[in-house]
Model the fold of this input.
Amino acid sequence: MKQSRLFNYREDDDSVPPEMVRPRDDCKLCGLCAGRTNLVLPSGDLRSRVAFVGEAPGETEDNLGRPFVGKSGKLLDRLMKDEGLDRSKVMITNTVKCRPPNNRAPTEEEMAACRQFLESELYGKDVIVGLGKSSCRDLLGYEGKMGDIVNKDRSIVVRDREILFIPTYHPAACIYNRGSTDALRATIRRIRDEFV
Ligand code: URA
Done:
C-alpha cells in the first residue's frame, strides 16, 4: 500500500507549531526503519526561536525515543548548564529520526527522505545551530573540515525564509578535545546571550 508521506502532530497540542509534521510511527521512507526501536522526534520547546540540529539518534536515543539523552547528550547538557542555557528553552532535533546501524553517519538518501520533517521543524526559527558534520552536510551542503567553519555565521533558506545558521562541533567530537569543547561552549554562550 502506498504510504502517505506526512503525518501531523496532534492538532490539539499547542506546544507544536501548526506547520510541523512528523513521520508516521510505521514510517518506511528509508531503510533506517529496519533497525528502529523508536522514532526520535524533536524535544524541548518546539516553538523556540532556536534549533539545535544533531546527526542521528544513537542507541540510547533509539531506546528512549528522545534526542541527545546518551553520552553526547550528557555532555551537551553539562555545557548548557555551565553556560546558563536552559535546554528546555530550545528545540533539539536531528537530521534523521531513526538510528543508523552501528552509529554510522546517515547517507544523503536517508537525510533526503527525512528532510521534509526537518524542514517543517526548522521553519520560522531565527537561528539554527548545526552540531557537527552531518548537520552541516545536510543543511549547508558543506563537505569540508569543521574547523574551517565553526562559529562562522552562514545562512540557509527554509522554504521562503532566510535563517541564521551557526556551524559548530558535535558534542561527540568534544569528549576528548578541549579546543572543540571551548568552541561549542562559545556557540552555546552566544545562543544564551543573543537568542534566549
Ligand atoms: N548524537 C546525535 O547526533 N543525536 C542524538 O540524538 C544523539 C547523539
In short: The radius of gyration is 16 Å.
